[in-house]
Amino acid sequence: MPFFEKIVNLSPVATFINIVDVLLVWFVVYQLIKVVKGTKAVQLLKGIFAIVIARILTDIFELTTLGWMIEQVLRWGFLAVIIIFQPELRRALEQLGRGRLFARTMLEEKEERKRLLEAMSKSVNYMAKRRIGALISIEKETGLSEYIETGTSLNSDITSELLINIFIPNAPLHDGAVILQRNRIAAAGCYLPLSESPFISKELGTRHRAALGLSEVSDAVTIIVSEETGAISLATEGDLLRDLSIEEFEERLRSLWFGEEVEQENTSKWKWGVKRNG
After folding, report:
1. Rounded (10°) CA dihedral 104, 110, 115, 120
2. pLDDT band at 18 (very low <50, low <70, confident <90, very high)
């Protein structure tokens, strides 16, 4: 096949250049994936990669007709991709203009996680002690844009002061959920789907049902502060962790939000509000 003949006839220098070229392409692709991570665009991006791989295979195996069809899809789909990915492309270009697209280091990432956890812990602890009801959802892989659109757009930094002020009783946005997206407060006063699970304890109110409802349709992590008792809970994957101390809350949130490991012996202390699957 012509493809394999070209590979065999390459000189060592040409081979090295091609390897570097491929590695650079994959690095750029990886950075772009990080930009769109946590949005619905991830699923569309997977589809585009599948089409590109199929196009390469048609060249390797000389599938002329199928290759022509895929070529037309790629050619005319370019405009559709620009329209669909417009928010993500704009954000990537803004970061590139600031020199931040490839500049984030592990140290910066660690410091940012620490800041976010401290802000979340401080605000939740403050509201729990004063029995201020709160509902905060953290977007992960599954996009929450449809729920963000039901609230008031903020697009602000995550700070404990802002979170506390949002949920102060009788404040304009206190009756609803705050949704965090890409380490920012995307919106407040959002409406979440209520769970209809028969296993939910009857003592739990609307906030807990909304948190569980969202966890049943997405991989989001939702923080609940009870207005009646001040108890702190976490909802994820259709399950509810109830009555957490602030230390347990911080440890568990670190695991669910950033994927850091939690000691197995500590999991026995957490109380479940619904029956676990299986």
Report:
1. 110
2. confident
